[in-house]
Amino acid sequence: MVRIDPTERDSLYRTLAGAVVPRPIAWVSSLSSEGVENLAPYSFFNVVSTSPPVVMFAPADRSGRPDGLSDSARNARRTGEFVVNIVTEPLAAAMNETSATLPPGESEFDHAALDRVASAEVRPPRVAAAEVAFECELHEFIEVGSNAMVLGEVVSVHLDESVTTDGKLDVRKLDAVGRLAGNYYCRTGDRFRMERPD
Ligand SMILES: Cc1cc2nc3c(=O)[nH]c(=O)nc-3n(C[C@H](O)[C@H](O)[C@H](O)COP(=O)(O)O)c2cc1C
Questions:
Q1: Coil, strand or helix: which one is 88?
Q2: For ligand 1, is residue 38 a contact (CB within 6 Å)?
Q3: Considering Cα of 74, then 97, then 180, then 9, what sign does the dihedral take?
Q4: pLDDT for residue 62 is more than 90
Q5: From the CB of 60, is ligand 1 less than 6 Å away?
Q6: Cβ neighbours of 17 (radius 10 Å)
Q7: Helix, strand, coil shares of the chain as percentages rounded to 5?
């Protein structure tokens, strides 16, 4: 067995990111205090609770940036709102474009030529082409060392009819993309069924 020293940050990151796979991707839209529409992907993302409905994304520290935070994290903390858009395969390239570091004042929506749609309950817009979007109000902002965990309570949900059957989300119709490590991703179209005991 190879032992990894957990204090060696680079090899630990590589091991965590490569072993905790596939990770779902939160494509987070948010608004800066100046009103710039921000959009960025976060694969440290998951559901935390269904009652109340809470999701989370975890931005790594950005020393040197205002508040030591990424724009998405700072916007969510300052405005109390964000939207998680789900990334499907046709949107993967645009999602990747939005991970670029842009000059302040430039929106990733424009950078990646993405249409936005007004949200129902929160001010940040959602990605028009996203088949699933969760509008969130900040539930809690937890500092984890120099990283953070941003918890959002889902206050509105949008589903494109193309991913539904009888008005409900049908996982067989949603080609969500998963993050592996480095520049590798996976598709979720290779599904199989397994019955649970009892
Ligand atoms: C697929 C993908 C997943 C990412 N996941 C994370 C993540 O979980 N945490 C993080 O801090 N950065 C992550 N990043 C990097 C951020 O998206 C990138 O630094 C971006 O510029 C942050 O934008 P913001 O400052 O507008 O929030 C990811 C990038 C990609 C392409």
A1: strand
A2: yes
A3: negative
A4: yes
A5: yes
A6: 16
A7: 20, 35, 40
100 Cα: distance to centroid of ligand 1 (angstroms): 9
| pTM score above 0.90 | yes
Structure tokens at 59: 């931005």
User: In this structure, which residue's CA is closest to atom 21 in ligand 1?
Assistant: 99
pLDDT (0 to 100) of residue 67? 87
Give the CATH fold of the 24-180 domain: Pnp Oxidase; Chain A (2.30.110)
27: which 2 tokens? Answer: 């494509």
Q: How far is CA 117 from the centre of its chain?
A: 17
Residue count (the chain): 198
The pLDDT of residue 24 is: 98
For residue 64, pLDDT beyond 90 = no
Residue 119, Cβ density class (10 Å: 0-12 exposed, 13-18 middle, ≥19 buried): buried
Q: Which residues contact 67 (CB under 8 A, 6 or more apart)?
A: 74, 77
Mind listing the pLDDT tens digit for each residue in 128-154? Answer: 999 999 999 999 999 999 899 999 999
Nearest CA-CA partner of 86 in 173, 150, 175, 186: 175
* Domain residue limits, the chain: 24-180
